[in-house]
Amino acid sequence: MDPLTPDTKIAVQNVTKIFQSKQGKKQGQEVVALKDLSLEVKDGEFLVIVGASGCGKTTLLNLVAGFDKSSDGQILLDGKPVTGITPECGMIFQQYALFPWKTVQENVEFGMKMKRMPRKDRKARGDRFIDIVGLKGFERSYPHHLSGGMKQRVSIARSLANDPKVMLLDEPFAALDAMTRQVLQEQLVRIYEKHRKTIIFITHSIDEALLLSSRIMVMTARPGRIAQEIINDLPYPRNAEVQLSSRYMELKRMIWDSVQAEVMKSMEVEAD
Amino acid sequence: MEINTPSKSLAVSIVSLVIFITTWELICRLGFIEPLFLPAPSQILSRAVKMIENGQLISHTLASTRRVMVGFFVSSMVAIPFGIFLGSSRFFMAVFDPIISLLRPLPSMSWIPLSLLWLGITETQKYSIVFMGSFAPSLLYIIEATKSIDPLLIRAARNLGASKLDVMKEVILPGSLPQIIAGLKVMLGIAWTCIISAELVAAREGLGFMIMNGKEYFQTDTVLLGMVMISITVMVIDVVFRKFERRLLPWTR
């Protein structure tokens, strides 16, 4: 294993994750979700992991967040192993995971409240992040009065306000309509440029990966491994012009080729 | 007739009540039924007036209401935190499960003899009957309610730095509150059953005592008046409880 460079934020080292399947025909059988997977994320990097469904992307993110323990190998955050759930890796879920009984304000302030931050400071900082995601005026609304896109913005504000070292986003825009998705993608890029958080973002959309990332990894189907790594050198802002450039097309073709091969492989596995 | 507004259905309900009482009154007035067997509504009403004047009706009603409220309050205050704790810990659930399973099938009535031996005919004995009758079922309602929480929310809370205790306070309690309250409403009805049974067996005041005492003196009107008072009191408390519920659950509006 190479020695870690000083600006390595997260190092996933030879991680294997095996599940016991709990139901169905394959009960008791072992499923290898990740096998001997290694990757590094540098400080301030926007890494997007692309892969077909069931390739273990979410499993990987759950391990980094400490929700789950790896069967083998280790994950380092700032050189220290992740041993349990850590607020330093803020997770954004596809299903938003907002607390329905808390207002937008209370949701955004949740992490700070857990840190026992004084109410006044909490409010000031909460207001700032509510403003950043463009939800000023909705502070007192309950989540069920908000649209999907607004809910995800609350969730992003809630995570940012908690000041995590790393943000983990698990297909955060997959449940949104195309228009809303685009608005949120642009907003996320702006937030990234301004706050320079280290981000690991998971998606199955190649366009989303190209639009957001500074680096892209393509994951193989079970067992999950890294198939390809691409440095995304497209210029910012990644507007319509960039999306029509030949470099964009070239990268998209490259990713699609390797994703396609993986999808075909996984379909064969399913058929067995 | 088509009922399409709340006021219309209220009107129908009132007419129905008036017809019911008038028919009852007429049957008694026309001498079809012996007053000792079933007194007329007017007779019950005049008994009510008498008992309001001498203060007995109010004091019996208040006595029973107080007993229900104290017993129910103590039982809920213990059952809610304990239920949330058990709902979030598989280990302690396994520890307490056999005890709860043993207590649960016992009707509150079966505690009356033991409570009389231990505590005598006292107020504490009344409270303890309400407590014993409502505690185990409340606890089960609350444990069940904690299971309705989306595990993703617990994950999200932990990810934002919540400790396990924080999760209970900030996620499991508020998240299961709508179902806890629904369960407690049912339990309040059971608490009334408990107290009336306890008062029927041994008491010096309360609506159950009033009914039993009425029976001893062949005052059928007092018996029926006691029963009517139980209905009215439970209905009033239910309305108050509902108001309270709306304030506790602002996000469900």
From TrEMBL, chain B:
Subcellular location: Cell membrane
SUPFAM superfamilies: MetI-like (SSF161098)
Membrane-traversing stretches: 12-32, 68-87, 99-121, 182-203, 223-241
Keyword Nucleus: no
Membrane-related topology note: Multi-pass membrane protein
GO cellular component annotations of the record: plasma membrane
Family designation: Belongs to the binding-protein-dependent transport system permease family.
Protein name (record): Taurine transport system permease protein TauC
Organism per entry: Desulfotignum phosphitoxidans DSM 13687
Gene coding for it: tauC
